Description:
Layout: E1 2-6, H1 10-22, E2 26-30, H2 33-43, E3 47-51, H3 59-67, E4 74-78, H4 83-91, E5 96-99, H5 104-117, E6 127-129, E7 132-135, E8 140-143, E9 149-150, H6 153-164, E10 170-171, H7 172-180, H8 188-202, E11 212-215, E12 219-222
Parallel strand pairs: 1-2, 1-3, 3-4, 4-5
Antiparallel strand pairs: 6-7, 7-8, 8-9, 10-12, 11-12
Helix pairs in contact: 1-5, 2-3, 6-7
Amino acid sequence: xxxxxxxxxxxxxxxxxxxxxxxxxxxxxxxxxxxxxxxxxxxxxxxxxxxxxxxxxxxxxxxxxxxxxxxxxxxxxxxxxxxxxxxxxxxxxxxxxxxxxxxxxxxxxxxxxxxxxxxxxxxxxxxxxxxxxxxxxxxxxxxxxxxxxxxxxxxxxxxxxxxxxxxxxxxxxxxxxxxxxxxxxxxxxxxxxxxxxxxxxxxxxxxxxxxxxxxxxxxxxxxxx
Length: 225
């Protein structure tokens, strides 16, 4: 299940993303209204967590743009408690709202309830891009229709981030936050070891990787063609 998280508060965005990743969701993130709409168009998320107060375009405007394209569930986040704002959000097509501050557990419970109401809590199809498919619930990957490859939780998180950014380099810092929730300099060696183990599973020749490639000094990318 792919979730688009939109909030201009970087710390909150990362916290929400980490909590949802831990719960098995594939998370994509945007920091402002215009990039949220672009990401919605390119990534086709299954559900949206959307802040109201943002630069560029408000959450109200983003919600309206999403509703012109799709009926996916939208959860609004707001520091406001005025009834008028909440009514406006619901009238624009939002399905639910949550007032800040809130705990990640509360957000997760509300999202699951929203998905149940939308009839979307059943098992999601594998995430796919090119020749690679990832089944988050089963913790398996398939390459070019081959046999399922069992992944550990850490390998699964690495594949989630790389697959959602297929063909694009993902920085080591972003991967560290996604996988472990922090980015200490000493953890880069752990990331290298994790990449090495994953290559052993998905590459025909791990010494000459076709899919999981290193971008020298920048990070890693997944080539799916």
